[in-house]
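This part of the workshop introduces the protein records we will be handling. A record pairs a protein's sequence with a compact description of its fold. Comparing a sequence with its tokens is the quickest way to learn the format. The record below serves as our worked example for the rest of this section:
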Amino acid sequence: QVQLVESGGGLVQPGGSLRLSCASSVKIFNFYVMGWYRQAPGKQRELVANIISGGSINYADSVKGRFTISRDDAKNTVYLQMNSLKPEDTAVYYCNAIQARYNYWGQGTQVTVSP
């Protein structure tokens, strides 16, 4: 059974940094896509960044140049380094993995950017 467990969220001041981690219970090279989504109160869940098998990386326009997604296959973990955080980055961040027709989600981790 696939489990994705996020960690690293918290409260940070504007301009600060956080690194989110998503640990998988199975080998991550099995997944076609791994990525991060976020959902702010009253808004739809949106893609933040993802890595596609083969190395292609995509970022939402709102985070380009500030966030970096990476993966460590040896640790079966995907990371999201978030720099220059803004209040509008406040949301619950979810790890996502796609394997064939299956779509897996973590439980989410709260990120709050506030003075």
In short: The two ends are 40 Å apart (CA to CA). The longest strand covers residues 91-99. The CA atoms of residues 29 and 73 lie 7 Å apart. The chain has no helices and eleven strands.
